[in-house]
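ok trying this again, last paste got cut off
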Amino acid sequence: MTAVDTVAAKTDTIQDTIVITNYADNDIVILQTLNEDFTFDMRYATDNNFLNEVVYDCDNCALRYKAAKALMEANDYFLELGYRIRLFDCCRPVSVQKKMWEIMPDARYVANPYTTGSVHNKGLAVDLTLENMEGEMLDMGTDFDHFGREAHVNYTDLSE
């Protein structure tokens, strides 16, 4: 049974607490409450990020349900291969997007909150990497929050 099937198969009550199991695609959900098979390293709830400060008051990964469902399906695939997804950032408040833009006003790396904004602001994007089951991150060419040519989608000088 996949993670998505497990969420859909949950009962309606657990110890007299109502649990919503029929989410609409645009409902905001907390991924940690749906699935424990991810690693969560929510960098903006710490000072280990390019802002060098804590900008989230909690380390929840909030997303639209359709994004969470897609992530659970992807993670199921990677689990079969001996890897899992580690998440660094999920839904991002516009106030944080503005702070990021103040420090890095370069649309190649940070979406302009005064024009298009970020898909993060809509709960439809995540920052992630892959790790093995021992928690060692795979080499993706750069660390999180890297602003250089190695972070561009067309950069090809990467390790296997």
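PB: full thing came through this time. Residues 4-18 have pLDDT under 50 and may be disordered.
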